Amino acid sequence: MNFEFTEEQIMLRDSVARFIQDEYDFDMRQQIAKSAQGISQDQWGTFAELGWLSIPFAEEHGGFGGSAVDVMLVMEQLGKGLVLEPYLATVLLFGGLLQKGASAPLQAKYIPKIIDGTCLGAFAYLERQSRYELADVASTASLKGSDYVLNGEKVVVLNGANADHAIVSARTSGGQSDESGISLFLIPLDAHGVQRLGYRMMDGQLVANLVFKDVAVPAAHLVGELDQGLALMQDVVMEANMALAAEALGIMEQLNSKTLEYTKTRKQFGVAIGSFQALQHRMVDTFMAYEQTKSLLYRAVCALTDDEEDAATAVHALKVMVDRAGKLIFSEAIQLHGGMGLTDELDIGHFAKRLMMINTTFGNGDHHQAQFNALRYN
Amino acid sequence: MDTAFSQEELAFRDEVRAFIAKAYDAELQARLASGEPQVYKQAVVEWQKRLHEKGWIAPNWPVEHGGTGWDATRQFIYDSERAAAGVRDVVPFGLKMVGPVLYTFGTQAQKDRFLPAILASDEWWCQGYSEPGSGSDLASLKTKAVLDGDEYVVTGAKIWTTYAQFADWIFCLVRTSNEGKKQEGISFLLIDMKSPGVKVNPIVSIDNHHSLNEVEFNDVRVPVANRIGEENKGWTYAKALLAHERTSIAGVADTKRGLNLVREYAKREVNGGKSLLADPMFQVRMSDIEIELMALEFTELRVLAAVASGGAPGAESSLLKIKGTELQQAVQSLTMEVAAYYQGVLPNDLGAEQLGHEFGSKARQSYMYGRAATVYGGSNEVQKNIIAKAVLGL
Description:
Chain A is of the alpha+beta class. Helix content of chain A is 51%, strand content 16%.
């Protein structure tokens, strides 16, 4: 049993941390957030040069062959910098689905392009009615000759406004909420019949609603087995939830350390407000919440790495903890910063908003607690 | 980063299981459950002697003093298996508290005199820290020791002394100076409970049991040779001990066992025609605790691993103490909810068959006495002060 990182992992972590510190400060981040594209192609190119886009991919496709621990370390640092570039959407979701489910020709065609930064991807799974239920899919794909024809609408697609390709879930058989009968298709977003409507979220993400009207998809673009797409989605989403939790942990650390610093310098009644016991105990609570989240993250990462049976339980527990601890930490950060905590100028509110969006991505705390309960007590 | 057990570690786990299954037999368990104090005490001593014979009595001690030399993983495995089998941890006062102080700060003569009897459970220890006027503000303690030739004369009182009625020895913090800071005039003394002038007054606690006491010292003469380390430096030694104490107070493995019991009880309990465990509201209460506990288990592993690679348990032990005791109480509270009206049953001679219920009375006792956990070992509020100062730099 050890909780140490290898030398390689420490180098990777430090290289991302250094980049955030030197090239991606809060002003830069806000500038990118306000730009038309909402992400920076230059920064993305740097990510590619530094090899970060290759981390989870197999070496045969030019990947780094990294583990869940490597992904965790990168995401934690990206969280600290509130990085907007679509690492989750392109590398972990779009790339993850390709890596785990796509045919060899599709992998050979797209994974190298993800790695060199020339392909931006998205995973279009969410529909108006589906909320947090991955199996609730009303979009359809029906076979017509040798092609599939796809119809339906996907909403709040992460990186949907900038992606050139998306993997889209659609029903090839069964009823709207059946676990079986979901298939995944890789679709170029400039294909005939695709409409996209981009819009901004509170955390600076540029997302899109995608409407598919009689979009022709070659059968070769099926990702994973026909009708068996749900298991593949669940697998990739489970790892994505771990990655999101790592990002959240980076944000929590920032909020706690910035709040602590502030209470040491902000003076009221002639003394630093950090000298008040009422505030000290609350900062101890947020410190403990951070440490507990970190422990569950490590637990989930170890379970994923060792492919343990209870990996799903650990990830559900982690997402519950991220929800609870995140809300406690950002609420206290805003409160302890007083009026300044309410300003758009200060980074505190932006960290808070990203945590809120992380909570809603792939299920909030209540959703994951229900899943956890079903696995443990039913 | 890796938490999977190796083949050797799995073999060790099997060895622990096999040992407990054989040595912690039904006859011993029955005596441990006895309400008769002397029967209980003898059973505890006997179990500890069996552990000593096996060489497992002091997992946290260095090998040269009789410890096991286990790394963090083996300590974790042992503790998990012990708790999962429902085996209570050893009585902490000798083995977890004064023992480490003795081998760290004691003279060779003190080590030779006391350590073997602690390991063999031949002498029962109790802890003399709190006083009627000194609780969370421990350093304000007033029990005084005045030098007279080669003896101290000790006068004052200690309180909340667990099992003083069983104890052969008490380790005490006493005031030997009123000069300077209050922490700087304290000495660490070992006092024979049979000394003239020691008087034990029982305190019945909220769980209707007698484990707590007040211990009076009326001109008790204590040889200077029974002082640990230097005069007026006792606070330093006590502080080192407190970090150990807090780490073991967390009790993660035992709380896990408690939660498993709740789960078993709830599964059998019927609520509106269905198992209580299937009740969504109950499930949420249960997983609120279980999720925090899963996290705390890894927090404890992280601290254990850090200690094993050379660190001493520091302020993180305060985190373990706070979260650990909160979760103990949460499990006790949930057990009470499962027991429903049977939680009110006072100890009696009726069997579960006659009563119609098996755990209500025990649940109440644990719950009521369990309120102590957030108070003792330095109240949780004091632990927060420690974290604020030592970790957050406030």
